[in-house]
């Protein structure tokens, strides 16, 4: 099979050119601009099917985890091809399913962070001196945005508790990772996502991170009753491990906020195994292991 989405080092321009190619091949994709980063880069969503009954997938909250973007773009391509050619995806007639249901896919939540992780501090344009002032031994491991805020610590779910934990771990100011910002939803990327969720009222969310082959599904007492079963089905379908939140990953994340705000199911999938950034050569292998989980999620 010849795919538009191929193993490559991914960056902002790759994202834009893949999206353009997908739209030209599959004109039923409705692409929208959800927001812009501090450096003016666009955060795009790809919408397919019924927009009034949709789930959301989002990737690349963390700069070094850009392979998650390619995974979501490949899912978009496989889904669209199955619709266009009238084939089943994981045994499901998605063309028929998506007359009732919809999917919203945000391949890259943190394009500035991805640029820094792939191209270094110079890609932070007018913020490059600021980014350069933040201690970072290896920019390939950069996770924050260009303001030195970790998007997945910036959501309004136990934010003050998390800030306390960050302080106890020696994180007091903008950092390459794990600094939650001056206040919840301070960042353009966080605002873009929460605004979209409040407008579209998605049934459930799935955030892609790397790595560990793990699935997280809980956030305190707000975790919805049906999500235990959903988590088990999703984890079983890809042989990932179900994990309970702990430590610095226990508050402030997108799925935490989504569960807390809407009392609906939210999941974090930690794709692949190894060290970030995961090598692009593993794209197809990682993807094929989770394709069924991504497909099932849209139907739940
Ligand atoms: Zn992450």
Written account of the structure:
This protein is α/β, with parallel strands linked by helices. It has one domain (12-299): Aminopeptidase (3-Layer(aba) Sandwich), CATH 3.40.630. It has helices at residues 12-25, 67-85, 94-100, 111-119, 128-132, 159-168, 188-200, 227-238, 254-262, 283-299; strands at residues 30-36, 42-49, 54-59, 102-106, 205-210, 214-216, 241-243, 266-271. Helix 8 (227-238) links the parallel strand 6 (214-216) and strand 7. Helix 2 packs across helix 10 (283-299) and helix 8 runs antiparallel to helix 10. It starts with 11 loop residues before the first helix and ends with a helix. The mean pLDDT is 96. Bound molecules: zinc ion (ZN). Zinc ion binds next to loops.
